[in-house]
């Protein structure tokens, strides 16, 4: 039996609307990592080297845990709530911000919060293992409050609340749970994620420039490697206007050091 148009619309509102591309991929990656963790029988390698353990990450120099911990949950309830939060809030932030800025917020806040949690964890719980995209979901909650502010929204199709008040309640609940569980590293990670998200939402911190910075660094390394490998010749669009300078004077020190014949060259 085919549902009527108003029934399809009600179902769409209940499920939070159509998923946006980056949110869909993040959900699939997070879910696939957790399913692999379960199918392989909770391998100790995942827990010891891919989730975040402050002693291993900082003292053992396994710094990749700060990034990989965003994908590997160690608790079933944590992955459930994180996926629900990403499913509900991801499209609401990705649509107005765009996929690039949304993904930057997700990654920068998650990595920054994990770094803070690892440093604080060295003082309070160096052997405590955590994992998951919880800090990034907290960042989405904070961004949701700043983006929509006083708008009345139907959250999951049945909770009617002002966006900023709903965001405050959700962040306060996360902080309360950390306090009740005496999870000081988790508490500080939540505070760090919320602070970064607030700066990003008010445009005081352009998190999308983090991806540009990584790309610029990688391209700079590639250019430096090519310059070490090849001899750069003058010419091209950046050649000087003076033909003598372009050709080089006879007593120029560059002419005294002619490149070896067997060294490859390219025109800049």
Q: What does this 3D model show about the protein?
A:
The strands form two sheets. A two-stranded antiparallel ribbon has the order 1-2. Strands 3-4 form a two-stranded parallel sheet. Helix 2 (21-39) runs antiparallel to helix 6 (76-97) and helix 6 runs antiparallel to helix 7 (99-124). It folds into two domains: 5-211, Rhomboid-like (Rhomboid-like fold); 230-267, no CATH class. It is globular. With 268 residues, the chain is mainly alpha-helical. The chain is built from 13 helices and four strands. Residues 5-16 and 245-250 have low confidence and may be disordered.
Task: Give a short synopsis of this structure.
By secondary structure, the protein is mainly alpha-helical. It is built from 13 helices and 4 strands.
According to CATH, what is the class of the largest domain? Mainly Alpha
Q: Which consecutive residue ranges, at least 5 long each, have pLDDT under 50?
A: 5-16, 245-250
Q: What is the helix fraction of residues, given as a range?
A: 55-70%
CATH superfamily of the largest domain: Rhomboid-like
- Provide the succession of SSEs: HHHHHHHHEEHHHEHHE
Q: What is the rounded distance between the termini? A: 67 Å
Mean pLDDT across every amino acid position: 78
Q: Helices and strands: which structural class?
A: mainly alpha
CATH architecture of the largest domain: Up-down Bundle
Radius of gyration, whole Å: 25 Å
The largest beta-sheet arranges its strands as 1-2
Shape: globular
Number of helices: 13
Strand content: 5-15%
């Amino acid at each position: 039996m085919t549902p009527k148009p108003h029934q399809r619309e009600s179902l769409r509102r209940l499920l939070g609307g159509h998923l946006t591309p980056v949110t869909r991929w993040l959900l699939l990656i997070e879910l696939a990592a957790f399913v692999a963790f379960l199918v392989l029988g909770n391998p100790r390698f995942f827990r010891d080297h891919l989730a975040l353990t402050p002693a291993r990450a900082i003292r053992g120099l396994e710094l990749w845990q700060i990034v990989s911990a965003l994908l590997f949950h160690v608790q079933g309830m944590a992955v459930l709530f994180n996926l629900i939060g990403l499913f509900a809030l991801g499209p609401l932030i990705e649509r107005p911000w765009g996929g690039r800025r949304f993904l930057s917020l997700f990654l920068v806040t998650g990595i920054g919060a994990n770094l803070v949690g690892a440093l604080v964890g060295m003082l309070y719980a160096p052997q405590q293992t955590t994992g998951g995209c919880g800090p990034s979901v907290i960042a989405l909650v904070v961004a949701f409050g700043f983006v929509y502010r006083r708008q009345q929204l139907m959250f999951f199709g049945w909770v009617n609340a002002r966006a900023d008040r709903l965001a405050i309640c959700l962040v306060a609940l996360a902080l309360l749970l950390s306090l009740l569980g005496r999870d000081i590293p988790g508490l500080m990670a939540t505070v760090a994620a919320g602070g970064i998200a607030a700066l990003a939402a008010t445009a005081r911190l352009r998190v999308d420039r983090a991806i540009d910075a990584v790309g610029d660094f990688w391209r700079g390394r590639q250019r430096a490697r090519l310059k070490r490998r090849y001899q750069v010749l003058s010419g091209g669009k950046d050649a000087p206007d003076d033909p003598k300078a372009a050709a080089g004077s006879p007593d120029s020190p560059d002419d005294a050091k002619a490149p070896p014949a067997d060294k490859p060259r390219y025109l800049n």
